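Lab meeting, action items carried over

1. Structure of the two-component assembly. Owner: GW. Status: complete.
Input record:
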Amino acid sequence: MLNNQGRPTRSGEASTADTHTFTGNRALDMEEALIFETGRLDATGVDIDEPSAFVSRLGAHARNSEIGLPGLSEPEAMRHYVRLSRKNYSIDAGLYPLGSCTMKHNPRLNEKMARLPGFADIHPLQPTSTVQGALELTSDLARILMTMTGMSAIAMSPKAGAHGELCGMMAIKAAIEARGEGATRNVVLVPESAHGTNPATAALIGFSVRSVPTGADGTVSPDAVRSALGPEVAAIMLTNPNTCGLFEREIAAIAQAMHEAGAFFYCDGANFNAIMGKARPGDLGVDAMHINLHKTFSTPHGGGGPGAGPVVLSKALAPFAPVPYIVARGDTLDFVEHIEGSQAFGRMTAFHGQMGMFVRAIAFILSHGADGLKQASEDAVLSANYIRVSLNDLMSSPFGDRPCMHEALFDDRWLKETGLTTLDFAKAMIDEGYHPMTVYFPLVVHGAMLIEPTESESKASLDLFIMTLRDLALSALGGERERFTAAPRRAPRRRLDETRAARQPVLKWTKPAPA
Amino acid sequence: MRYLPLDAVDRALMLARVGVSHIDEIFADIPADKRVSGLLDIPTRKSEIEVERILSSLAKRNVAAGSVPFFVGAGAYRHHVPASVDHLIQRSEFLTSYTPYQPEIAQGTLQVLFEFQTQVAALTGMEVANASMYDGSTACAEAMLMAHRLTRRKKAVLSGGLHPQYADVAATLAHMAGDEILRLAPDILASEDIAAAIDDQTSCVIVQSPDFFGNPRDLAPIKAAAHAKGALLIAVFTETVSLGALRSPGEMGADIAVGEGQSIGNTLNFGGPYVGLFATQSKYVRQMPGRLAGETIDAEGRRSFVLTLSTREQHIRREKATSNICTNSGLCALAFSIHMSLLGQTGMQRLARVNHANAVQLADRLSGVKGVSVINECFFNEFTIRTPRPAEELIETLAKKGVIGGLPVSRLLPKAGLDDLIVVASTETNSDEDRAAYAAALAQCL
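Predicted assembly:
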């Protein structure tokens, strides 16, 4: 296919000729050595003057051994990291449809605000009289998050989603202990479709995990919950909207069943992006829910963090919220930093939480306003459904034709005759310039493909994505194999030998032995 | 709304394709009586200029550390970060990528993590390090749980020199998990008898060096005492720069070394985000929490990197995982790694010398103030002073004079009878004028 200037319209059609080069580079895609192979022990890219003579107070503790780390000049460092960066896919470069991860646009205004010296250059333990603006921002964000979720209290300190889960489950455990049931209520219900962090969190603080089946419609039924309930059950950890991309219709009945049995309802809030301004967890009977600021509120994922996972709490759990929390004393704000004299269950982390993320999240919220946040959720959900209905004649949906929330789930039944796997399909997307969707999760769906476009995509972008997936699907169904099994062919790397990595782990660079 | 690309026409076309006439039909699964009607009671949308105005005015109500003579440490340290670090971490491909689950298009992040792990292992003198934890305090608590798994015991001994909030975090987790914890009394002079606290139920001893009060500690005898009872030594550090001048945890025989990496590449941020460092010996790697990047090859035989040993992790092992951690501190680890690559061993050692020299000079100045004494015999860039006035009140008065003079110990240890102690830190960012201003202001207050 050629455009009217005579150039190929798709790079893929240009050439598949031999790509061998002397350097191993492929034009802009350059091989890059490790810093340990290029740096020198006596080099440094930071000019620091030696101190004038002084009497050391290190005593016998002084280090005599080499550290063994090379240094790079600034130009060398710049080139190293810029070259490495070009081997990464990013939201800024393309659609990143990872289900359950909410890879939305990361506004640069947020970055600019977080770097104001009044936020970036303040110490967590300087006198609170000198950080009143930071305390006010934190309480503003706290209030907004409570309003959006309809909950009574909040713990701001958890550092990420799983840390928020831990915080919420600790509050539940503390409430149960306060009732004198600590020894007897030691089971947590976790649906099969849950994120792995849920059972891992429950187990971390001594709960045993009881699995609850997911129904044929992709949701959890109150009957399934009731039959798993007993006096030994402390809580359920339920994601809503759930990991199948569906709103748990019976959520209020499930909450009621839990409460009648004297147990609590932990909601995994990873998918809150679907329901901002549409539904409030507090109205649904939720007792605790973490909010991933790095998902719903656009703080960047940074290649694996940092995140922030504030936890909203119901009235029943509010007294057990961890320190620190903010209180007003007259017209100044102050931290409560110690648990003495309260029912606070303890402390999640040193200091007060992810302030840098709070600034970014509140910049995002202020920019949207109440109407913009609601619109963002509506657009995210509309975009996911647009993708769903545009693909479901070719790809199979595990739960039929019902509308989804902000992510569309497919399984691999449609690939059965082709002999191809979900992984093959995902890797072929890479050659088309897309990051794959979440694959093989949730576990309740065979060969799951979970697509979350978020609200950040234009219609043109969604249309091209849909056309690409349709082209791939048709080619798979038409018997083409190499486009999938050999994929990716045009990425910086072909498929990796993951077995080798795990069998003989090489987890750091070591100096090669002399030949 | 500037962040939303869809317009009314797009939305109408998309609704038609979906086969509904109104967006609320898609939300039909939300029970009608539970839907939010109207708009939530939160502010209306703001332009970029308005957001800047609001947040700048909040920021101005905080005293930035760089605007005054500033001497607070106690687990977070103000260091100079080269301009190139902040530029590089804002590259789209680092800032806006996810956890590297698709390694073919995430080699940048994966190679950085491999280099980061190598750097952390070298600094700590340990054999292997992971790809980061949330921060030092949570890394410390996770190390305790790892020691429980390795020893099949459930009692940790916490040194009285451990940062009080690190101890609080570990105590909270231990209480919730039903584990035992023995927390030794605050130990300002590093004179506690840790060996006497170890018995044959002890899983680990957790010792910080330099400790909360600034004293470097010799961990070798503690390691010997721990190993004699089958317990592990967990070494904690809150100031990574100290590793450029002090014996490493590995040299002193630590089984696990954890610490706060904020000092390298990361700003103060009022306490977060930071980056937890976690290192151990190779034989323990399968009980380690967190992500690990490892080396392998691709289908063309080229060296490549990939997340590995994930059978330890929650997304595979669920309730049997070594930790529940998922998202960690990738971007802060990147900042750490870039800054460390610039420093190298040469820069790191020099930076440490400057920090130590500055602290020595500050100690000399402050101990010259009538009534003030430095309690430490040895220290790195942080030490504790005893003052004739209650420390909290004194720090407040100093702040009014435009000097932020350190942390009153009683803020973190309120009922320990340590009301006259201030933990004071000095880094390369303090000038001689800063130190003179502190000494002068202190003299005026006493």
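2. GW to write a short summary for the group page. Key points so far: The longest strand of chain B covers residues 202-208. Chain B has a mean pLDDT of 97.
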